[in-house]
Amino acid sequence: MTEAGNLVERWRRHLALDRRRSTHTVRAYVATAERLVAFLEEHRGGPVTTAMLSGLEQADLRAFLTVRRMDGLGNVSAARELSAVRGFLKFVGGEDARVPLLKGPRVKRGLPRPVSPDEAVALAQDIAETAREQWIGARDWAVLLLLYGAGLRIGEAMGLTGAVLPFAETLRVTGKRGKTRIVPLLPKVREALEQYVAMCPFAMERDEPLFRGARGGPLSPALIRRAVQGARGRLGLPERTTPHALRHSFATHLLGRGADLRSLQELLGHASLSSTQIYTQVDAAHLLDIYRNAHPRA
């Protein structure tokens, strides 16, 4: 096996065993590393080594992204590709890794619309991958999946305690004005929560916060907001991509799939149906955007 091949294989094992990433994520990130190696072999005209990868410049990554864009890669996918490349280079270089700074492609702005599923997943993956410790990455991944997969407000997620353990198919959430509601937990969301709990170094007491900060205290919503802001910049996502936007996306996507307003009102914990009706306007704007971009007479 070549030196580059050995590095890619070690990257695969690191993602699967150390970081415990999903099979899909491991496959996607390894494929990106393999594409980068193949590109550099031709671009640099020789075998790829650890020293070469550790000494890459902005121009090298820019050339790689240009080739990928010529393959038809869209803005969000290109940003995810760049994020995976950064992760691979950081792994190769270790603690002293010097990864070239390069802004990701900008996502075209249009009418206000929800964060797409691809954008939501890319955001959560980037934040998890760049966390300073594995359990913190698992924590942030679980928090963001709760916002997008269960429609929680960030304050509601931070308000969960060890009393919710063990996780079941539903979760009892306390919202505004102390109102409680039951939300379903999708298998992927429950899996992310269970993985975080298994990796968290602090005991999960019934009356203690479920989500902990680095020193064991309650996790501050500001940390999640800052993490989202950083990932948003790295991935080239628009400023509308915030933790609360993930909750909006949850609602809009459900409505687009046929959920009725009353059910959506219960899932979101809205006191008034009028608060929920705003999502019909957002969904209509999103559909109009799709129509204008796709219809030949638009």
Explain how this protein is built:
The chain is mainly α and 298 residues long. The chain folds into two domains: 3-96; 117-293, Intergrase catalytic core (hpI Integrase, Chain A, Orthogonal Bundle), CATH 1.10.443. Helix content is 61%, strand content 3%. The protein is built from 13 helices and two strands. The protein has helices spanning 3-18, 23-44, 50-54, 58-70, 75-93, 117-129, 134-150, 154-158, 187-199, 221-235, 243-256, 261-268, 273-294, and strands at residues 170-174, 180-184. Strands 1-2 form a two-stranded antiparallel ribbon. Strand 1 and strand 2 form a beta hairpin. It is elongated, with a radius of gyration of 21 Å. The model is unreliable at 107-112 (pLDDT under 50).
Per CATH, the superfamily of the largest domain is: Intergrase catalytic core
**Low-confidence parts:** 107-112
CATH architecture of the largest domain: Orthogonal Bundle
H-E order? HHHHHHHHEEHHHHH
Instruction: Quote the CATH topology of the largest domain.
Output: hpI Integrase, Chain A
Describe the main β-sheet briefly: 2 strands, antiparallel
Q: Order of strands in the sheet with the most strands?
A: 1-2
What count of structural domains? 2
The CATH top-level class label of the largest domain: Mainly Alpha
- E-strand count: 2
Percent of sequence in beta strands: under 5%
| Continuous helix count | 13
Helix content: 55-70%
Shape: elongated
Integer average pLDDT? 79
What is the alpha-carbon Rg in Å?
21 Å
Distance between the termini: 54 Å
Structural class: mainly alpha
